[in-house]
């Protein structure tokens, strides 16, 4: 492919997605599987998930899979999230990324919610029988990204989404796609687009939706089992458009600004920005703010995905002069209810 056409690729994608994708706040609340919108990775959560243009490595599979290709060789990440502290909801994540060939990269991500134990109740025992159950929210993604001429990277993710209780479950397949473009005298300006959670509808099925009722006929006194059909629901699709710019401060320091716009198909659109200050590869400090249109923070119309965020990273080589590094990441996102969202993570770069 001629390199001059690669530079036009992001603008072609923007034109295409802008034509076929549009948010609709009137449909707010109609989608399900909102687990897909909760960021499990601390480094990008510190910028309130607005690094569409510059996110890299295994965590790029959540926001913009195109950044998966921008790793040295191998990366392994573990993440833990305390979601809405006080609600006893936790989330665990595993991400793995591996370079393939000259410009390709393969990745796999696993994300699971821990919602705790619930009392098992029925119509006959509404107060509970003493038994408990734990709902399962789980998604797995398999990704591939490719970097062209160190300027344009593109990628896609195929995801399996599952939500279940003891006697009913719903599942779906979804697709993410993204592109990142890098330019500038020192590759300091970046532009990114990602389209997320485009997939099949989900519908709960299983024995939990069955009910034995007497046979309506007069011949034999026995029960028939009837199954209720639950309503299908969409996945929370969204389009992200972002840009970032790096300012080099001396030989080791860097200040990065990010701006991001999110168009949600089933909720209000959002816009925001953030700053990241880094000292080489060893330390980074982040802060961001995300605003949701036509819904003041704290109102009943606003989602939880807005407000202030902050985070930091500490990264050290395993031995002097080695490219193998271990990093610790932390992020906090404020929420109007409960006590915010805390992310912690560990990364190993080989």
Describe the structure.
The protein has 350 residues and is mainly beta. The protein has helices at residues 3-6, 9-20, 42-45, 60-63, and strands spanning 74-83, 89-100, 104-114, 118-119, 132-133, 136-148, 152-165, 168-183, 189-199, 210-214, 223-227, 238-249, 253-264, 270-279, 283-292, 307-317, 325-333, 341-349. The strands form 3 sheets. It has a 14-stranded antiparallel beta barrel. Strands 4-5 form a two-stranded antiparallel ribbon. It has a two-stranded antiparallel sheet with strand order 10-11. A hairpin with a 5-residue loop joins strand 1 (74-83) and strand 2 (89-100). Mean pLDDT is 88; it is low at 15-22.
Molecular shape: elongated
State the distance separating the first and last CA atoms.
31 Å
Q: How much helix is in the residues?
A: under 10%
Residue-averaged pLDDT: 88
Number of E-type strands: 18
Biggest sheet features: 14 strands, antiparallel, barrel
> Which structural class should the secondary elements be placed in?
mainly beta
Q: DSSP strand (E) fraction? A: over 45%
Number of continuous helical runs: 4
Encode the helix/strand succession as letters: HHHHEEEEEEEEEEEEEEEEEE
Please give the radius of gyration in angstroms. Answer: 23 Å
Task: Give start-end ranges of low-pLDDT stretches.
Answer: 15-22
Q: Strand sequence of the main sheet, in spatial order?
A: 1-2-3-6-7-8-9-12-13-14-15-16-17-18
């Amino acid at each position: 492919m001629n390199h001059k056409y690669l530079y036009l690729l992001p603008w072609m994608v923007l034109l295409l997605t802008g034509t076929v994708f549009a948010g609709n706040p009137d449909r707010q609340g109609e989608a399900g599987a909102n687990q897909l919108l909760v960021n499990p990775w601390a480094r990008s959560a510190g910028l309130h998930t607005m690094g569409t243009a510059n996110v890299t490595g295994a965590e790029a599979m959540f926001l913009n899979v195109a950044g998966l290709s921008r790793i040295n060789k191998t990366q392994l990440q573990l993440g833990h999230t305390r979601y809405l502290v006080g609600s006893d909801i936790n989330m665990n994540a595993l991400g793995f990324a591996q370079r393939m060939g000259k410009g390709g990269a393969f990745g796999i991500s696993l994300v699971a919610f821990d919602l705790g134990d619930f009392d098992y109740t029925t119509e006959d025992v509404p107060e509970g029988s003493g038994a408990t159950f734990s709902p399962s929210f789980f998604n797995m993604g398999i990704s591939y990204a490719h970097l062209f001429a160190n300027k344009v990277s593109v990628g896609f993710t195929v995801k399996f989404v599952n939500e279940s209780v003891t006697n009913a479950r719903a599942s779906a397949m979804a697709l993410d796609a993204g592109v990142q473009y890098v330019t500038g005298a020192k590759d300091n300006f970046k532009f990114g687009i990602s389209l997320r959670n485009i997939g099949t509808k989900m519908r709960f099925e299983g024995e939990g939706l069955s009910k034995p009722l007497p046979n309506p006929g007069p011949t034999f006194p026995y029960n028939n089992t009837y199954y209720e059909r639950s309503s299908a629901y969409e996945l929370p699709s969204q389009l992200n458009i972002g840009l970032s710019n790096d300012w080099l401060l001396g030989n080791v320091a860097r200040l990065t600004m990010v701006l991001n716009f999110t168009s949600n198909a089933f909720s209000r659109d959002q816009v925001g920005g953030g700053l990241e200050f880094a000292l080489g590869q060893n330390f980074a400090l982040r802060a961001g703010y995300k605003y949701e249109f036509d819904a003041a923070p704290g109102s009943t119309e606003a989602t939880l995905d807005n407000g202030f965020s902050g985070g930091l990273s500490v990264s050290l080589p395993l031995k002097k002069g080695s490219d193998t590094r271990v990093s610790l990441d932390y992020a906090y996102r404020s929420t109007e209810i409960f006590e915010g969202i805390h992310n912690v993570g560990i990364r190993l770069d080989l």
